């Protein structure tokens, strides 16, 4: 069933979202530029790049509408802007755990970046073993007739954390949420192994430096 069924206002909202998502794309572009500058500057000045790679995405209108419906929110642009914080998303993958906090700290000190919310799943992993640092930031996007302050979700993690999260997602997607009962325990052990690997590699990095 389409999210539009029984929700006639969403036809109008979907049209408005298509235009609004362009602004979210601009916000992603702004942050991607900041992160790329930071990466290149560190590589040049400190001979260590704290960013391994960066990816980004902007949710499609149907995915936003589905989430609005699940949350029981009114189908308006105002509700979208207020309550849906992951429309625009950036994933920053770092070599080492300290790099995650270094990049987050530098972003937070920039005048035009406002940290709205922080969820530290590295310090306090989720029950299934998931580790990552999540930031909701708000940045200004300068348009021809106005300035919009746009929320972007930034997920920051190490290579090991990213590998675990990607494979965990593929495993559960394959089983359509009905994975074998022993999967949860095995994935938790794998997450702990990845965390141990992060600690060992960071120790080696400190010795080299």
Summarize the structure.
By secondary structure, the protein is an alpha+beta fold. 53% of the residues lie in helices and 20% in strands.
Describe this structure as you would to a colleague.
This is GTP pyrophosphokinase. It holds the Pfam family RelA_SpoT. The protein contains 6 helices and 5 strands. It has a 5-stranded mixed β-sheet. The protein has a single domain, classed as Beta Polymerase, domain 2. Helix 5 runs antiparallel to helix 6 (about 185-209). The protein has about 210 residues and is α+β, with helices and mostly antiparallel strands. The protein has helices spanning about 10-45, 60-70, 75-85, 95-110, 160-175, 185-209; strands at about 55-60, 90-95, 115-120, 135-140, 145-160. The longest helix has about 40 residues, at about 10-45. It is flat.
Intertermini distance: 57 Å
As for the CATH topology, it is: Beta Polymerase, domain 2
Q: List the total number of helices.
A: 6
Q: What is the approximate shape?
A: flat
The CATH level-2 architecture is identified as: 2-Layer Sandwich
The largest sheet, given as strand count, sense and whether it forms a barrel, is: 5 strands, mixed
State the domain count.
1
CATH homologous superfamily placement = Beta Polymerase, domain 2
What is the succession of H and E elements? HEHHEHEEEHH
């Amino acid at each position: 069933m389409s999210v539009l069924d029984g929700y006639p206002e969403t036809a109008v909202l979907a049209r408005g979202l298509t235009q609004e998502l362009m602004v979210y794309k601009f916000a992603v572009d702004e942050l991607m530029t900041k992160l790329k500058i930071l990466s290149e500057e560190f590589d040049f000045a400190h001979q260590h790049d704290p960013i391994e790679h960066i990816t980004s995405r902007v949710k499609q209108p149907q995915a936003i509408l589905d989430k609005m419906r699940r949350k029981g929110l009114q189908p308006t642009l105002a509700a979208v802007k207020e309550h849906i914080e992951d429309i625009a998303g950036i994933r920053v993958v770092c070599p080492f755990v300290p790099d995650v906090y270094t990049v987050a700290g530098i972003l937070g000190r920039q005048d035009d970046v406002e940290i709205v919310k922080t969820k530290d799943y590295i310090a306090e992993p989720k029950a299934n073993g998931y580790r990552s640092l999540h930031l909701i930031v708000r940045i200004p996007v300068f348009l021809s007739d106005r300035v919009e302050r746009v929320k972007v979700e930034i997920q920051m993690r190490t290579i090991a954390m990213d590998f675990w999260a990607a494979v965990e997602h593929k495993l559960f997607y394959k089983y359509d949420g009905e994975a074998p009962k022993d999967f949860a325990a095995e994935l938790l052990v794998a997450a702990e192994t990845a965390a141990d690997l992060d600690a060992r590699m960071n120790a080696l990095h400190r010795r080299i430096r």
